[in-house]
Design brief:
By secondary structure, this protein is α/β, with parallel strands linked by helices. The protein has 12 helices and 10 strands. It has 2 domains: 188 residues, Rossmann fold (3-Layer(aba) Sandwich); 107 residues, 3-Layer(aba) Sandwich (Rossmann fold), CATH 3.40.50.
């Protein structure tokens, strides 16, 4: 069986829709559902599957036997690539930002057990990860690999993420996602159903570059966006993986009321933004909001 055949027949669980009950929603006559993409697979979860899906097929088309990618020491992307490599028969290489710390944390320990070759580079060198000279040096060291960008974001990731809207079996007007590298929101825009608006919540400080990056990804994937999307830049809480008491208090309250475990890196920030926009009257009454939860809920990966 080819990689393409394996990918296209890969068994995934259906991502359930969880309806949220809250007085704020009732007051504003809105419905909010969380789409639990994190539950579709234990290791290649959420947007990671959609981003990798067509990249794996493309790697086979290019006759590449090795996947090389980039990430931090706690990267869900590194975790998912290591899992995908072991499942679909690729060797994997992870270029990790920063210095080596032993023993391995749970993410890198998982990757190592899946035979990922792990190499550390300085933060200065890591910033060169898209430079042709840097990539050329990696080829000299590691040979003929298929390059997966940080976060898996490229035109093939957009193609995969464009499939997400069509998997939702209820009517809705808004679909929301946290944004890191831009691949997921570009895919949602490309695959948006008529009459829906895509809302993005960047988790990085100074993420205005994501608007241009999203437009470039849509162009590379030859997708024609409807233009009906918007990004909100004010819910990063200081930057990637940063938070404050306001955010943490909101997440604790939400989790307690809804028996959930929203994280403070991605989904929790988006959720805070959605609730803030509701209070500000952004959403039209009697409409439905879908919030995509792509990353595993807090502590799931760390318990593997």
């Amino acid at each position: 069986m080819t990689v393409e055949e394996k990918v296209l027949s890969f068994p995934l669980k259906q991502a359930p829709l969880v309806k949220i009950s809250d007085p704020l929603l009732k007051k504003n006559k809105l419905s909010l559902y969380i789409k639990r993409e994190d539950l579709i697979h234990p290791y290649i979860f959420g947007n990671k599957w959609y981003k990798l899906k067509y990249n794996l097929i493309e790697a086979e088309k290019q006759n590449k036997k090795t996947l090389l990618t980039f990430g931090g020491a706690y990267s869900n992307h590194i975790f998912a690539v290591a899992a995908a490599g072991s499942i679909f028969g690729f060797k994997t290489i992870g270029i990790i930002r920063g210095e080596e710390h032993l023993p391995f944390n749970p993410v890198l320990n998982f990757a190592k057990k899946r035979n990922m070759l792990i190499n550390y580079v300085s933060r200065t060198d890591y910033r060169k990860r898209a430079d042709e000279d840097f990539i050329s040096k990696l080829h000299k060291v590691y040979g003929n690999f298929y390059l997966l960008p940080e976060g898996g974001t490229n035109e093939f990731a957009v193609k995969g993420c464009a499939e997400i809207p069509s998997t939702i079996d209820i009517n809705y007007e808004y679909i929301c996602t946290a944004c890191g590298t831009g691949g997921t929101i570009a895919g949602l825009i490309a695959g948006a159903l008529p009459g829906t608006k895509v809302l993005g919540f960047p988790v990085l400080k100074g993420a205005n570059f994501l608007r241009q990056k999203t437009a470039e990804l849509l162009s590379q994937s030859q997708s024609s966006p409807s233009g009906n999307y918007e990004m909100f830049m004010d819910y990063h809480f200081g930057g990637y993986a940063k938070s404050n008491n306001t955010l943490l208090s909101f997440i604790r309250d939400f989790n307690k009321k809804n028996n959930f475990m929203a994280d403070s890196i991605y989904f929790g920030k988006m959720l805070f933004g959605i609730y803030d926009l509701i209070r500000k009257g952004y959403f039209i009454k009697n409409k439905t909001i879908i919030a995509i939860n792509s990353a595993p809920v807090e502590n799931v990966v760390l318990s593997v």
